[in-house]
Design brief:
alpha+beta, 6 helices, globular
Length: 163
């Protein structure tokens, strides 16, 4: 079985097309998009991106990232991702999305937000599972913040591609 790890903005259809050229149509997509309201996703992941060939300096701009300027805009951006990856999947492919919340956006249930983003994309939600929270591992927030907060529970949303 072959696979591909994609580093790039999946709203851009060319990113998905390039990965598909390497391995053919997809049977599985496993992802964890930035949680709603997390504007520092890329800077927070700087060292991981650097190991994958990214820049050697931290870029704190948010240009080009998923929009966090409102629920509807965020959902529309995610919907573009799901449509793009779905177009490169075999019928019956599986999508697994790990998603959660951040402190200032707890008014939104993560499972409802992801489910709304999947509507009208060809992806059908088949299961939503409680995925616990980051307290079981080492949280970056615990390492770098003086005031520790409790992590929020995350969900795994499973969907099937049914165009």
């Amino acid at each position: 079985m072959e696979g591909a790890a994609i580093q790039g903005d999946s709203r851009d259809n060319l990113i998905i097309q390039k990965a598909c050229e390497l391995v053919g149509k997809f049977d599985w997509i496993i992802t964890s998009p930035p949680y709603y309201g997390l504007r520092t996703y890329l800077p927070d992941q700087w060292i991981r991106n650097w190991f994958l060939g990214g820049p050697s300096v931290v870029d704190y701009t948010s240009e080009g990232q998923l929009s966090h300027n409102g629920r509807d805009r965020f959902i529309a951006d995610l919907r573009q991702v799901w449509a793009n990856v779905g177009a490169r999947c075999r019928p019956g492919a599986t999508l697994v999305i790990r998603f959660g919340s951040i402190g200032d956006r707890l008014v939104e249930d993560p499972a409802q937000l992801v489910s709304a983003s999947l509507e009208e994309t060809g992806w059908v939600t088949t299961e939503i599972l409680h995925a616990d929270n980051a307290a079981r591992g080492r949280r970056q927030a615990d390492t770098f913040h003086r005031k520790r907060s409790a992590p929020y529970d995350e969900v795994d949303v499973w969907a099937k591609w049914r165009p």
